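pinned: reference chain
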Amino acid sequence: MKTTRLTTSQAIIRWMMAQRTTLDEGVEAPMFPGIFGIFGHGNVTCLGHALEEVKETFPTWRGQNEQGMALAAVAYNKAVKARQIMSAASSIGPGATNMITAAGVASSNRLPLLMFAGDTFASRIPDPVLQQVENFGDPSATVNDAFRPVVKFWDRIVHPAQIVQSLPAALTTMIDPATRGPAFISLPQDVQAIAYDYPERFFEPTLHDMPRPRADSSEIMAAVEAIGNARKPIIIAGGGVHYSAAEATLADFAHEHNIPVVETVAGKSCLLGDDRMYVGPIGVTGCEAANNLAAEADVVIAIGCRLQDFTTGSWTLFSNEDVAIVGINTTRFDAMKHRQVPVVGDARETMRELTGLLGGYTAPDAWVERAGDEKAGFRNYLDQIGAVDAVGESGLMTYAQVVRTVNDQATEGDVCLAAAGGFPGEVNNGWWNKGVSTFDAEYGYSCMGYETAGGWGAAMAYSQGGGAEREGEVFVFVGDGSYLMMNSDIYSSVLAGHKMILLVCDNGGFAVINRLQIGQGGKPFNNLLEDCRLASGAGAEVVRVDFASHARSMGANAESIETVGDLGPALERARASDRTYVIAMNVDAYSWTEGGSFWEVGVPEVSKLQSVRDARAEMDKGTSDQRVGW
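pinned: its structure tokens
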């Protein structure tokens, strides 16, 4: 057996470079197109050295914060529909644990992400080392063990030969649709440096085609029976439709069988906004049009969905006592939830097989006409609240106007990206995509800070070529709260040359949580800046951030605007910019797109405030409609 002598670090990178994948339309590309890295004493001398040796062919991108760079990797992997895996590497201690949040995002969204972190010495001779947190009762435990609950694969390499088994196992976990999610590999500092005679065949180029598992015939037939008897069916399109690259198949399936389609946040932009079968977003951040249909549906075909509370209205949305839910998913865990009729298989192939067996089945025309009427009413509402002359309670522009203005000017290649706070509900309703797969609102983990980092990752993915490139801008919608929580990747995007356009909407704090707080009877407290504890003394006031100046200090082009009428010309300047562009504006803190559904949150049973007691009574009334025992 031919061998080559490499350090553990060199072997890891060489193996990664040998892995290949197939993108849409059969284009071959690197499985690992590069790595985000921030170096410290726990990885710079070994893993960093290995990366420097191949820097011309295997790019290393430096972030400003480990969480941010790993979030950028998540967004990259989402943008390429999980067909490539951008990775992230950190040093030990706080650098490593900074990536845990990103691991949670990837896990919740069922997305691949490969993370490496330095660790203490396997020999333990130098212990305790810099940035080590000692566990008195378990000397084998380090902070890297904290990744275990939020990844699908975890390993600590304590001998260089272990990577021959571990790396392929990690990749298998990440690309198998049944287990897809993040992988974490812990690299003790001494093991990174050890040399070993690796078999050369370990580094042979290997092409990986993403598997498309077929459903069991009995599950297919059970689904055919349920759908074939439906008079009021709907399809819920989830993120799994995107990861299966099944958007065109979904459109064909819906039109063939006359079934209205609603979308989850992760599934949005599976269909074009003006598609006749598309109704709108479902659930808490959804619209009345979709939710009204869900309440009457006798069969719900959930494709690639986790059926989280924001989709199901905390399981109050499906009011028909006899409703059947057909769960099409590659993960049995998701397909079996809440007594679904499980169909464990790839979304694209399952829909094709169902069409072949459903024959000429179509839902009644009256049901589709009803869906169209609901959609028209909703679109009319959006026209009213998004109009230029609509104003918020304070006289400031509103989120709805901002989204509408950008959406009106968007092209079919432009991408909308958002995450936590008030924007997911606003873009989920107000953004009517003109192109397929042009929407990313991270709401699986609802991670503040994803916006800016994710925008960088998405812009990188669309500019890399290899079949994933896209003509258009990445529009990042971010509130002042998320911007302040993580913004340094504006600088990263400028350094790396990956342009995005950030719409920074300043509503004076965590306004959507203030909305929830007062909506459940509480007093405004610690959310809006004006309700926070401030400096005392004469002249104390809320100090507002000049976001445009801040962005310019990081090398971006930026401006502040006063009215929604100023936004259109600002967008033209942003498109013409040669680098990341930030448009900052003040928006109303109390004006929101209405609709949605019930959502269960904890409301105190005992309170001095009558408003809280009233809210608790309303919550109890709402939970009485929940479907229990599903």
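why pinned: Residues 393-508+544-586 form a domain with the Rossmann fold fold (CATH 3.40.50.970). The first strand starts at residue 3 and ends at 7.
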